[in-house]
Design a protein that fits this description.
The structure is a single chain. The chain is an alpha/beta fold and about 450 residues long. Helix content is about 30%, strand content about 10%. It contains twelve helices and twelve strands. The chain is globular. The relative contact order is 0.17.
Amino acid sequence: MQGEEGATRPVPELSDPAPHGPGDATPNGSRGPAPDGSLDLAPGGSRGPAPDGSFDPPSPDGSRAASPDGPFDLAHHGDAEVGPGLVDLAVNVRRAPMPAWLREPVAAALDDLTGYPDPEPARAAVAARHGRPGEEVLLTAGAAEGFVLLAQALRGARRPVVVHPQFTEPEAALRAAGHRVERVLLPESTGFRLDPALVPADADLVLLGNPTNPTSVLHPAETIARLARPGRVLVVDEAFADTSSRPGDQERAAAGGPARFAGEPTRGPGPADGEPESLAARRDLPGLVVVRSLTKTWGLAGLRVGYLLGPADLLRRLAAVQPLWAVSTPALAAATACATPTAVAAEREIAVRLAAERAHLVARLRELPGVRVAGAPASAFVLVRIAGAARVRLALRDRGYAVRRGDTFPGLDGDWLRIAVRDTATTDAFVTVLAEILEA
């Protein structure tokens, strides 16, 4: 595989991708769209088998043993794991009462639904939070819509690359738009950390997450920045950036000290407001698009609100393929509220508490024989390797706990599970049950 240096080219233009037939295998063994441009949606909304039926069928325990280069169920997400009566450790959305400063403007927006949504106030608020002009912000109906816009607007990309393991919707969106996607798999042996040299030099569209779902790895911002260059669109999914925190803040919280940013004005993300490796304020990197979400920390999965940050000319191309009035008035109210100094200070305090709860979960998991925690977790979830994880997952379900299977993420197999960080009491109860299952 080529290194990270390469010749410069124009950013991919708006044009059709190279033609390919239904079910044609890409260089990594995955398949493109059906004749109608779809990806063969199964009745439940998941993407089904290729025309040759080679989508690895589930075994009796519900697992799929897919090779790193083979097909994966990219449409499977943590919400499919949860059900009535189960403690949810599968979905990475914080569950807490909505603060008044957020609840009240969202509720008030319900009285203003006769008019079409006006995104300008929210765009201005988000731009101010990140220290950027408004033309460098594009509001979206969740981060997932952002991936669809990128896939549709950049159909001229000649070599799109997705760095895995990571959230599967970016690749799913690319494939649905007809792209031939190449995967770069980060190895477990390095703690799933990014090596820019693994990314082909001529890749003109590169997507990765930071912190990465499902590995919980937080890549150094400067390492990611090495991937930026003229002629390439570099997409960094920062949906979980607001869950990360700096060790100094964590130490102050452990000592009972005040949160550093309580009451302070925000100065843009990154070191200034405690998101240690965020690129959201970087305007000097060519072709950089940062994807953000308000879903995780503020529990707004059902409202669908997120945004893209990037060069104004590139965002205009994305906006050209976005449906009119894509973001609802209540969602815009939430975006405005979550960009205020009050919201950013609260977010930082939540991230510090989360770090303590994550450390507790990791410590308890590492007490268990046969459980290996991947890398140095830095987000709202932890990835673990357990032999026979498919059986363990079903046994946990029988005991009242839902966890996220790992075998639907390219680069992982059936021995991986993702576990959401919760309060210490929930963690202790869960680990006790897990220990009993492993001992049985």
